Structures are given as structure tokens and as C-alpha cells.
UniProtKB/TrEMBL annotation:
InterPro entries: 3-oxoacyl-ACP_synth-2, Beta-ketoacyl_synthase, Ketoacyl_synth_AS, Ketoacyl_synth_C, Ketoacyl_synth_N, PKS_Beta-ketoAc_synthase_dom, Thiolase-like. The keyword tRNA processing does not apply. SMART domains: PKS_KS. Keywords: Acyltransferase, Fatty acid biosynthesis, Fatty acid metabolism, Lipid biosynthesis, Lipid metabolism, Transferase. This is 3-oxoacyl-[acyl-carrier-protein] synthase 2. It is an enzyme of class 2 (transferase). It catalyses: (9Z)-hexadecenoyl-[ACP] + malonyl-[ACP] + H(+) = 3-oxo-(11Z)-octadecenoyl-[ACP] + holo-[ACP] + CO2; a fatty acyl-[ACP] + malonyl-[ACP] + H(+) = a 3-oxoacyl-[ACP] + holo-[ACP] + CO2. Involved in the type II fatty acid elongation cycle. Catalyzes the elongation of a wide range of acyl-ACP by the addition of two carbons from malonyl-ACP to an acyl acceptor. Can efficiently catalyze the conversion of palmitoleoyl-ACP (cis-hexadec-9-enoyl-ACP) to cis-vaccenoyl-ACP (cis-octadec-11-enoyl-ACP), an essential step in the thermal regulation of fatty acid composition. GO terms for biological process: fatty acid elongation. Pathway: Lipid metabolism; fatty acid biosynthesis.
Length: 410
């Protein structure tokens, strides 16, 4: 099967609008976690999140279309626009049927549901939007990207909790290698920071309660970690068959070398203690990429800063990489942007791609007192200049879903 390459990147994250500002923030170890401003959170136990700052949808798309989209779809369209421009991809009548969209999500339009339930309870059924269903449906991010850019190839959405953003790249590679399209607009998106979502996850005990020091709240692998920080945003990349990219003279960044996804078959929220399901995803991804463990330099970890999850992932990496695990650079973008749920893996993938391009690995910030049970090289607090020839992104989700994608220098 032919190779699949990355030719453009786009992002909307708590660090700002655009891949460059987001990447600069990650490499600079800057936190995008702040007190919540999107709604009054004063009555909530958790009052901090990684909200996207200063996002104005009509700056990135038609204003009328934006009003018909939930926030997760708006993020997807904005990130896709940047990625298309970065790839110098022209979509015309001649090629639009050969361009696919694979944009995954974990929750879809939860804000739209919540707002309309509130409106109905307050004012009756007449106040429910007639566009409720086509706004909140999880497939709408992919569909809105297709509509915005006029692409008519396959439109795919997989709802895979927090594994969704990584799984998108695995599925897009399969789609391109089958010949179903020559280009795929690929990634993950999420916009689910709402009062009910925050309250639910806080009641579960999954969220950090460091309300008085938000920038220090997300602490993957640290002994003092007390849960993840809700985040939002999108990461989108342009994937192409190598043949198509070379034919049009596209700016190739790297190759998507392989990927896999597996299941824990264990619990709806907790990972397997030994990380066996996650390790299997990494082992299969390495095998499908044709890479030995020692050929990978960097792992963009899932690393949510939950007490169980970080230990399980550490064990999984050790299982997958064996003795070489101690020589890996492993870092957590979530330490700076929080957990973007269905978009988290797409941002981890972005970190892999740009680490290969720029020769720098972003840090894990707030790692001040390492947990002895988390004993890998987590690039603490300061980015590291190093050559990266191959990088691996992990994404693990509720229900025991595990996904891994591997990116390689070309």
C-alpha cells in the first residue's frame, strides 16, 4: 500500500487560534487553563477550564452558517480552513470528489442540547430550536467541513470518547490506502465546556479542583495530581497519498506511518491497571508502521493527570517498548491545555508532526514532584531540542477505547 503524508496543519486550542500560536505556546510551556468565563461557574465545585480565548466564529466562516453550528463544528471548520491553506490545497470541480473528511468527536453538540433543554424548561417547547438535531449530531463537524469547502468524498465521523482524535488518523490512512479518496481533512474537535458537563465530571471526582491556581492545575505524572482539566478546541491536518502530494508539489511535513486501536473490555471509566489494552495498541501500531521500538524518539502521551490513568499509561509504554522505554522522551500537552476530549489526540498528533518538523519536544509542565510510580522521561517543565525521526501519539477513552498513531520523517 502507498504511503500517506501530512501536508498541512490547523488548530484552535486554549493557547490561541492557529497552529503556530498553539505550537509556540506548547513549546514555551505556557498554560491555557484559566477561570471559566463562558458562563457563571461560581456555584460549581470546579471553576477552571481550558477555554479557547477570543474565538469569533464569523472570522473563520460565513456568519449565517456559523449560527447554525454548535461550537465543536465551528472549531472544526476554523481548524480545517487553516490546514487547507497551510497545505496549499485548492479544492475545485476537478478534485472535490476525491477529498474526504474524517473529523471525530467525543461528545458532539452538548452545549446545544443543554441550552435547548433549559429553554424548554423555562419557556415551553416553542422555544426549542428547529435546528437542535442538525446542530448537536456528532457527524455535523465533518459534515459542516464538507459543506464549507465543497468536498464530496467520504464524510466519516467516529465517536470514540477521548480516543477519537487519534483514531481519526488511523481511519483516514485506511480510507486513503483503499483508494476511496486522495486527500483527507482529518482530526478531532470538541466544545463541551458547559455547566452540566463540568458538574458531572466534578461529581465523578475526575476533575482537578485547584480553582485558585488554574495554571498549575493540570499535573500529569506529578505526585500532587488530582484530576484533569476540561478543555476545548480542534486539531485538523491534511493527509494525502504520497503520489497525490508529489504530483501537486505539496509541502510534505511527514508520513503517517501506521496506527491501531484496541479495547480494554474492562470498565466504563477506569483503565486496566497494567495498561495491557493500551500497550497492545502501541505494539500493533509499531508493527503496522514496520518500526522497532528503538526507532521511535518521542511519545505524545494521553496523560490526563488522573491518579490511575498516568500510572497505567506508564506501564503500557514500558510493556510496548521494553528496555528502550527509558530512552524515550514522553510528554503531556494536557499539562498546558487541559483535556480536549475528542480533540485531545488530534493535538497530540499535531505535537508529533511538529516535533518531527522542528526538532523540538514540548514539555510536561507542573511536574514538580514526580510520582515514583511514573518513572519515565517526561521532559519536565522545559522543551527539549532533539532530532525526532518517529513519534507516537496515544489517545485513550471512556469505555476502554485505545488508539495509537505513529508519524515518521520522510
Amino acid at each position: 500500500m502507498g504511503r500517506v503524508v501530512v501536508t498541512g496543519v490547523g488548530a484552535v486550542t486554549p493557547l490561541g487560534i492557529g497552529a503556530k500560536v498553539s505550537w509556540d505556546g506548547l513549546v514555551g510551556g505556557r498554560s491555557g487553563v484559566r477561570p471559566i468565563v463562558g458562563f457563571d461557574a461560581s456555584d460549581l465545585q470546579v471553576r477552571i477550564a481550558g477555554e479557547v480565548p477570543d474565538f469569533v466564529a464569523k472570522d473563520h466562516m460565513d456568519a449565517k452558517a456559523a449560527r447554525r453550528m454548535d461550537r465543536f463544528s465551528q472549531f472544526a471548520v476554523a481548524a480545517a480552513r487553516e490546514a487547507i491553506e497551510d497545505a496549499k490545497l485548492e479544492i475545485t470541480d476537478a478534485n472535490r470528489a476525491d477529498v474526504a473528511v474524517v473529523v471525530n468527536t467525543g461528545g458532539g453538540g452538548i452545549p446545544t442540547i443543554e441550552q435547548n433543554v433549559t429553554a424548554m424548561n423555562r419557556s415551553g417547547p416553542g422555544r426549542v430550536s428547529p435546528l437542535l438535531i442538525p446542530m448537536f449530531a456528532p457527524n455535523m463537524a465533518s459534515s459542516q467541513v464538507s459543506i464549507a469547502f465543497g468536498v464530496r468524498g467520504p464524510v466519516v465521523t467516529m465517536v470514540a470518547a477521548c480516543a477519537a482524535g487519534v483514531q481519526a488518523f488511523v481511519d483516514a490512512v485506511h480510507l486513503l490506502q483503499r483508494g476511496d479518496a486522495e486527500v483527507a481533512i482529518t482530526g478531532g474537535t470538541e466544545g463541551t465546556i458547559t455547566p452540566v458537563a463540568i458538574a458531572s465530571m466534578a461529581n465523578m471526582g475526575a476533575l482537578s479542583r485547584r480553582n485558585d491556581e488554574p495554571e498549575r492545575a493540570s499535573r500529569p505524572f506529578d505526585r500532587g495530581r488530582d484530576g484533569f482539566v476540561f478543555g476545548e478546541g480542534a486539531g485538523v491536518m491534511i493527509l494525502e497519498t504520497e503520489e497525490h502530494a508529489l504530483r501537486r508539489g505539496a509541502p510534505v511535513i511527514c508520513e503517517v506511518a501506521g496506527g491501531a486501536y484496541t479495547a480494554d473490555a474492562y470498565h466504563i471509566t477506569a483503565p486496566l491497571d497494567d495498561g495491557a489494552g493500551a500497550a497492545l495498541a502501541m505494539k500493533r501500531a509499531l508493527a503496522r508502521a514496520g518500526l522497532a521500538p528503538e526507532e521511535v524518539q518521542y511519545v505524545a502521551a494521553h496523560a490526563t493527570a488522573t491518579p490511575l490513568g498516568d500510572i497505567a499509561e506508564t506501564k503500557a509504554i514500558r510493556c510496548a517498548f521494553g528496555p528502550y522505554a527509558d530512552r524515550l522522551a514522553v510528554s503531556a500537552t494536557k499539562s498546558m491545555i487541559g483535556h480536549l476530549l475528542g480533540a485531545a489526540g488530534a493535538v497530540s498528533a499535531l505535537a508529533c508532526v511538529l516535533a518531527i518538523r522542528d526538532g523540538v519536544v514540548p514539555p510536561t509542565i507542573n511536574l514538580d514532584d514526580p510520582d515514583p510510580a511514573c518513572d519515565l522521561d517526561y521532559v519536565p517543565n522545559t522543551a527539549r531540542r532533539m532530532r525526532v525521526d518517529a513519534a507516537l501519539a496515544n489517545g485513550f477513552g471512556f469505555g476502554g477505547q485505545n488508539a495509537t498513531a505513529i508519524f515518521r520523517r520522510v
